[in-house]
Protein: Guanylate kinase
Organism: Andreesenia angusta
Amino acid sequence: MKKGLLLVISGPSGAGKGTICKSLLEQNSNINLSVSATTREPRPGEVEGVNYYFLEKEKFKSMIVEGEFLEHAEVYGNYYGTPKAKVMEKLNSGEDVLLEIDIQGALKVKEIYPNGVFIFILPPSMEELKSRLEGRGTETKEAMLRRMESAYHEIEYVFKYDYAVLNDKVDLAVKTIESIIEAEKARVHRQENILEEF
Amino acid sequence: MKKGLLLVISGPSGAGKGTICKSLLEQNSNINLSVSATTREPRPGEVEGVNYYFLEKEKFKSMIVEGEFLEHAEVYGNYYGTPKAKVMEKLNSGEDVLLEIDIQGALKVKEIYPNGVFIFILPPSMEELKSRLEGRGTETKEAMLRRMESAYHEIEYVFKYDYAVLNDKVDLAVKTIESIIEAEKARVHRQENILEEF
């Protein structure tokens, strides 16, 4: 049985990875989105196992100790993480799994599962990034400047990734990611059983 | 200026690399087929610089000595080779170049230009390979058996390549190669100037 691909789609805040992943999933029903675990309270409308796995803090901490996360982080007192077992189960049954994740998380996943496909989404330009962050309208000017500066520094992490995809037009970025998936499946190191078929 | 890709398409005799390359070139006018040099006589209809560069044996030998071939071989007293300068010129001007070449040649190219994209074409099965070689109708039974045996051993070289593409349906194989090209262009190590754009 050929293993599925672990697709890790990552990039700076405002690069548009959310929009790209949504469109990629809509057009490729065979790709499974990994569901994160969190200790924060569910918001109205959020469904257990769809938006998140909602866990008690004690449970989450014991899972950290047992090494049951591919990556995890604490943000404003709440924990977030990617449960390893669910992802591995899908991969081992030949299904592809998509992780949409920030850069710190992606680099942790790479340590544990270097065989993943690590894709960095680039904003088309700093100007465009600024206008996207402004478009969200949820930030003070100072917070926005901090986010811009942080995004700029985050872009340097692109060299830790396998692929860099420019998010100029969402459709083109999605098409490039689909090509990356097809190409990765044709990689010799992912087809160890080639010779057995002859 | 971003360098073009050197696509090396190779595989055992009868795998169908010729058909695949023809179709790939027809559908992608931006890919340049590398023209080989040879010391054999032109056949009727063959055009200098299109089918081959036809060279005198002395000239060919001095080019070997000067290291002016990416690879070369002697077959039944004639020399065949890939002139390095022509290929490098195209690559440096950002154009993609296709080499359709046997396995020995591909491995030599890999030593000199490991940054190429090495694609191995697999026949769908040994049965299908047999019927293809038979279809050519140009061989004795003994010669055919030798070719089958040699093809079988050649398939083991697949592990020296980056990609293995099954030639079950030509159209699908060409589509996979097009995806490989698109994916390779998105590879981080081929986009060294990413950061300069920000």
About this structure: The mean pLDDT of chain B is 92. Chain B touches chain A at residues 120, 122, 125-126, 152, 155-156, 158-159, 161-165, 175-176, 178-180, 182-184, 186-188, 191, 194-195, 197-198 (CB under 8 Å). The two ends of chain B are 16 Å apart (CA to CA).
